Amino acid sequence: MNKRFIEKKLKEVLYPGLDKDIVSLKCIKKIEPSVDKVRIEINISNESVFEQIETQISKLLENDFKFIDIAFVANQKPSINYGNTKKPNNRAPFAKNIIAVTSGKGGVGKSTVSVNLSVSLAQMGYKVGLLDADVYGPNTPRMLGLQDEKLQWNDEDKMLPCENYGIKLMSVGLTTPKSDTPLVWRSSVAISALIQFLEDVAWGELDFLVIDMPPGTGDIQLTMAQELPLTTSVIVTTPQAISTDDVSRAVMMFKDIGVPIGGIVENMSCFIAPDTGAKYDIFGSGGGEIISQRYSIPFLGSIPLTMAIRETSDAGKPAVVTDDKAQKSYYKNIAQNLLAQIGIL
Ligand SMILES: Nc1ncnc2c1ncn2[C@@H]1O[C@H](COP(=O)(O)OP(=O)(O)OP(=O)(O)O)[C@@H](O)[C@H]1O
Ligand SMILES: [Mg+2]
Fold first, then answer.
1. Percent helix, strand and coil across the chain, each rounded to 5?
2. How many CB atoms lie within 10 A of CB 342?
3. Count of beta carbons in the 10 Å neighbourhood of residue 109
4. Which ligand has the nearest atom to the CA of 105?
5. Dihedral sign for Cα atoms in the order 177, 184, 132, 231
6. What is the pLDDT of residues 167-222, one digit of tens each?
7. Does residue 307 sit within a domain?
């Protein structure tokens, strides 16, 4: 059996989690067949999927060779160097500015803010990409009406980001068979996927790359700070005390690792009744201002809790693309304040 024939057969092996085979993705470094033996060298950046690929290949060729030697050859890309955020790598040289949207707590509105901030920047005429770094709960595709999109590749085997409302999006949610398929990945795998989303995606030139972080202060936040020269970050909070405690942790983490903080956004700051327009401070008030003063970081603005924001966002239409002037203004204001903070406006 010759090399070409083996390569043809290997096209049946799909890269785990993706709809593309290992030959097209150029994962095969070498094929060395002899009479009853074949050696195949696999070159991938994500070692943790090697076992799955190995099993698939062994099964595929078990009737053709007595001995099958499948070797993992490490990819030459620079390794992730934990502990150095002072001089981070730059895995996104295509982006002029990189903004991380984070908070110590889940469910406070990071993704909603990321999406609306990105679209606001695009509406100002900037070229914007949104990287959904929430590998385990990717909901930006739904928020942008892209949940049924499937990944496409260009001729250079780079993934193409999906686009809507003038921004480009890359999210693990676009790679799973269904938008609610759960991912059971170790954090090293999640991080490799994110690095791939930076390096192996045809983003084109961007003025802004916005990163929607997962909740917490963990590996992904740290890796992004080590692998990207973050221009600034936005910390999202809600006014409750518990939330502000968690947010304090996020602020301290970013300060500790040297990521500039562009400011704080207070989301769900009050409830505006849709029928009467009356304002209620359901979660208390002033949490954002407290954090802003305590840590001397700018206050970028607040966003009330409104049914319209939740409804339009869940329906794939961010507030800033609706006709609702009030909803739009909260995010536009925040985008402008942030640009002023980084010296662009
Ligand atoms: N100002 C708001 N008014 C009403 N609903 C909101 C507002 N902001 C966010 N939401 C809703 O709250 C829910 C959580 O928001 P979102 O997903 O943006 O939070 P998150 O911080 O990204 O969550 P996670 O930590 O799970 O990633 C969503 O259903 C969203 O539509
Ligand atoms: Mg989120």
1. 35, 25, 40
2. 15
3. 22
4. 1
5. negative
6. 999 999 998 877 777 777 888 888 989 999 999 999 999 999 999 999 988 889 99
7. yes
- C-alpha 103/C-alpha 117 separation (Å) is 15
> Are 33 and 2 a contacting pair, CB within 8 Å?
yes
Q: Are residues 150 and 268 in the same domain?
A: yes
Q: Which atom of ligand 1 is nearest to the CA of 314?
A: 31
Q: Nearest C-alpha to atom 29 of ligand 1 is from which residue?
A: 310
240 near 282, Cβ under 8 Å?
Answer: no
The CATH number covering residue 173 comes to 3.40.50.300
For 301-342, how does the pLDDT look when each residue is reduced to its tens digit (9 = 90+)?
A: 999 998 888 889 989 999 999 999 989 999 999 999 999 999
Two tokens at 45? Answer: 């950046």
Which atom of ligand 1 has the smallest separation from the CA of 212?
22
Q: Which two tokens stand for residue 323?
A: 């006709």
Same domain (yes/no): 49, 188: no
pTM, two decimal places: 0.79
Give the number of whichever ligand sits closest to the CA of residue 215.
1
Structure tokens at 85: 């955020």
Count of other CB atoms within 10 angstroms of residue 208: 26
